[in-house]
Amino acid sequence: MNYHERINFYLGEKLVNKEFQDFQQKMSVNNLSSHDDIYDNKLKLLLIKTNNQNKFFDYCHGDIEERHNTKVLTLCKNRCNGNSNSIILRCLEFFRHWDHYYMRPNDIPFENKKNIVFWRGTTTGQPNRHGNRFELVERWFNKTNHIDVGFSFICQGKENYQNYVKGSCDINSFLEHKYILSVEGNDKDSGINWKLNSNSLVLMSKPRVTSWLMETTLIPDYHYVLLKDDFSDLEEKMNWCNNNQDKCKEIIQNANTFMSQFSDKEKEEQLEIDVINKYFELTEHLQK
To answer: What span, in angstroms and rounded, lies between the C-alpha atoms of 253 and 72?
Structure first.
């Protein structure tokens, strides 16, 4: 996407096409917590930086799960399941999602990695969601030496999955493997940014959450290897990868090229400024 197209992507179709009625923005800078450095303070700094601190807006704090119906014209970290109501910002929980992209971990060449599919993650998300972590682990936990998946630890009251815990690992442990899985949790996979920027091949089901990374614009079997939502074809796709190593390297290169569009931090910061300014320009008539 070019610069203008990305602005429209983050603003969303509803706002760009002015497909909204009777919407009232009720929040202001005064509603934002001064103790939250992950979300509220980051938004506050953006509003002050762009001289929009006296304007009103709607805002969703934290992860946006698929079951949540985001209201029209809401400032947020991401959108779920094709919802085009919300406006995506880059600054919200920036460190978690982008730190290991801009400070790329040490990596090794693809051909020197283990022929193993690898995944670790926490018990976030819901078992009834498409492409969920629980179905992955129940189906493939300790089933074959070539697929190593398990939970890092239990959270959000999922104690009934304790038998699937293998413990936490760092990013370098992921990058020892040729094939790494990306699996959404409460919303996006927090590691997908650095995974697509690595020398490992990403396998995943079709993303339903899109953030500043624009996950829903990724092309299956071009930027990543597509899996079924129930992960039933994981071993089949792994075998295909083992028999098509040059194609795997090509997909990795395509993923790295996709990720390169985010590499200029100054440009990305300006892009977010243009997004928030355009948001207030298009909603000026709603300001009370």
So the answer is: 37
Q: Which helix (H) or strand (E) holds 58?
A: strand 58-59
Give me the torsion for CA of 73, 79, 81, 82, rounded to 10°. 50
Give me the average pLDDT of each 10-residue run along the chain (288 residues): 96 87 77 92 97 92 65 85 82 95 97 98 92 96 97 95 96 97 94 98 95 97 98 98 98 98 98 97 80
Beta bridge partners of 147: 117, 144
| CATH 3.40.50.2000 intervals, the chain | 100-260
Cα–Cα distance between 131 and 10 in angstroms, integer? Answer: 24
Tokens of 106: 């040490």
CB of 6 within 8 A of CB of 271? yes
- Whether the model pTM is above 0.90: yes
Which pLDDT belongs to residue 65?
Answer: 59
pLDDT at 288: 59
Q: Which residues contact 62 (CB under 8 A, 6 or more apart)?
A: 39, 77
The answer to whether residues 246 and 219 touch, using CB atoms and an 8 Å cutoff, is no
CATH number of 100-260: 3.40.50.2000
